[in-house]
Amino acid sequence: MKTDSKKTLSQEKENMNKDQSGESIEIEREAPADNKEAEGVITIEEALQRISELEETNKELNDRGLRRAAELQNYKKRTEADFGNLLKYAAEPFILKILPVYDDLIRSLNHVDEGKVDSLIDGLKLVADKFAKLLEEQGISKIEAKGKEFDFNLHEALMQRHVEGVAPHTVLEEVEAGYMYKDKVIRHTKVIVSQDAPEQTEGSGEAKEEEK
User: Fold this and answer.
1) Which of 50, 58, 185, 210 keeps 20 to 30 A from 76, CA to CA?
2) Cα gap 59→65, rounded to integer Å
């Protein structure tokens, strides 16, 4: 009986030791898992889910970028088309204003067939006045040259001529009118300019003395 009781006690101790050792092993196994979670280590399932989310986000950003690029390209095409039309039809407002002047000119010419000279003259004066007003509204002005001092910035001299009592380099006549567009010369006035009195040569002077 004593031996049985001893065996029983020894078995219970062994079982207790086994239980205690098992608990310690389980604690040692669980401890590293807690440390991994603290260090931010994730499981494979979590990593795959995260990758899937990133791929979806990347796809959305890519689609958004493609849409923006397409919108920019369409805007560029519309802008180029509008700019092209603007250049193509830039003269339209001026043409609409000049058409009535042309109509008046045609009506004035019709009076030639009717033999009405006075009506023709009045009509041509009306056309000229209307056309001058139209040019003025567009910022076009005539360069006044006759009687002015010659200015190469405004005038183009075709010839020179001596005139008594007129200072040299003075515009005598306008051959063709010049015009300015706002502050820019778009056509120089073609003019005839006065020059200094021609110098007498020695031969001509001697001839005059012999005549005396």
Assistant:
1) 58
2) 10
Per-residue confidence (pLDDT) for residue 12, from 0 to 100: 56
Closest CA to 101 of 48, 138, 53, 73: 138
Examine the fold and report which residue of 58, 88, 118 is the final residue of a domain before the chain moves on: 88
Range of the domain at 119: 91-138
Residue 19 located in a structural domain: no
146 and 194 in a single domain? The answer is yes
Indicate the residue among 53, 88, 123 that finishes a domain: 88
Of residues 140 and 112, the one with the higher pLDDT is 140
- Are residues 82 and 125 both part of a single domain? no
Is 95 in a helix, a strand, or coil?
helix
What values do phi and psi take at 9, rounded to 5? Answer: -65, -40
Average pLDDT over residues 165-173: 93
Q: Which three-class secondary structure state does DSSP give residue 161?
A: strand
Rounded Cα–Cα distance for residues 25 and 19 (Å): 10
* Residue 141 neighbours by CB under 8 Å, 6+ apart: 135, 179, 180
Name the band, by pLDDT with cuts 50, 70 and 90, for residue 130.
confident
The more confident residue out of 42 and 146 is 146
Cβ–Cβ contacts within 10 Å for residue 188, how many?
A: 18
The CB density around residue 123, as the number of other CB atoms within 10 Å, is 20
Q: Which two tokens stand for residue 15?
A: 């079982």
pTM for the predicted model, two decimal places = 0.50
User: Per the structure block, which two tokens stand in for 72?
Assistant: 């920019």
Contact partners, residue 134, CB within 8 Å, separation at least 6: 97, 98, 101
- How far is residue 87's CA from residue 107's CA, in Å, rounded to a whole number? 32
